[in-house]
């Protein structure tokens, strides 16, 4: 007779690899279905907190709006990641990728990314405002959009000389010319 496990088996990162910052993209790709959403930061797995209902609603509305308004050659995506390097990945709220996109991939290389969008939540405020922009810039992603909640406000950055420079911000509407021309009604999407 064999013993049956008591209760569900809960996934956790390998403690030795966590201590030694030894996780790689291969570990992330091999995560079981029951694993939480994670980002890989210099070999350490970080559990990404679940976004609020407001955050998720704005993510969905933005991605849906972009799906209807971005020109041919671009494709918006949600809940997919960017491989920064062998020991670092990020999962932005919305990405705009250069087409064509392999629909079976969960992670994309920085050169496939035209725009990365982070919606700032209380649990991710420091990373979204200060850490992630530097990581995305170092990876060469040309455009970074940060959306603040309460009230909703869009900050648009372009990569200039390996760092992001603010090119537009508004709580109402933003007219963009790069990477394509679009009039983004941020107030309408955030209401």
Report what the structure shows.
There is one protein chain. The strands form 4 sheets. A 6-stranded mixed β-sheet has the order 3-6-8-9-10-11, sandwiched between helices. The protein has helices at residues 15-19, 25-29, 53-69, 125-139, 186-190; strands at 38-41, 44-47, 74-78, 81-85, 88-90, 94-98, 107-108, 113-119, 143-148, 153-160, 163-170, 174-176, 182-184. It has 191 residues and is an alpha+beta fold. The protein is globular and about 65 Å long. It is built from 5 helices and 13 strands. The model has no long low-confidence stretch (mean pLDDT 92).
Name of the CATH architecture of the largest domain: Alpha-Beta Complex
Order of helices and strands: HHEEHEEEEEEHEEEEEH
Shape: globular
Q: Could you report the average pLDDT, rounded to the nearest whole number? A: 92
Cα radius of gyration in angstroms: 18 Å
CATH class of the largest domain: Alpha Beta
Uncertain stretches of 5 or more adjacent residues: none
- Spatially, the strands of the biggest sheet line up as 3-6-8-9-10-11
| Portion of residues within helices | 10-25%
Q: How many DSSP helices? A: 5
In total, the number of domains comes to 2
Rounded to the nearest angstrom, the distance between the terminal CA atoms is 59 Å
Organism: Actinoplanes subglobosus
Keywords: Endonuclease, Hydrolase, Nuclease
Domain Putative restriction endonuclease: 26-180
Protein name: Uma2 family endonuclease
């Amino acid at each position: 007779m064999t013993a049956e496990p008591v209760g569900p088996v809960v996934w956790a990162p390998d403690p030795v690899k966590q201590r030694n910052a030894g996780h790689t993209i291969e570990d992330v790709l091999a995560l079981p279905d029951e694993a939480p959403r994670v980002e890989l930061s210099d070999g350490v797995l970080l559990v990404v907190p679940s976004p609020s209902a407001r955050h998720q609603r704005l993510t969905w509305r933005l991605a849906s709006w972009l799906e209807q308004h971005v020109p041919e050659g671009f494709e918006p995506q949600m809940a997919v990641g960017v491989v920064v390097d062998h020991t670092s990945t990020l999962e932005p709220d919305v990405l705009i990728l250069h087409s064509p996109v392999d629909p079976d991939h969960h992670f994309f290389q920085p050169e496939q990314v035209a725009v990365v969008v982070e919606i700032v939540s209380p649990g991710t405020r420091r990373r979204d405002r200060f850490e992630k922009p530097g990581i995305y810039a170092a990876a060469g992603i040309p455009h970074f959009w940060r959306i603040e909640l309460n009230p909703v406000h869009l900050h648009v950055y372009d990569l200039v000389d390996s760092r992001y420079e603010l090119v537009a911000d508004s709580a109402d509407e933003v007219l963009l010319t790069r990477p394509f021309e679009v009039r983004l009604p941020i107030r309408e999407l955030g209401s």
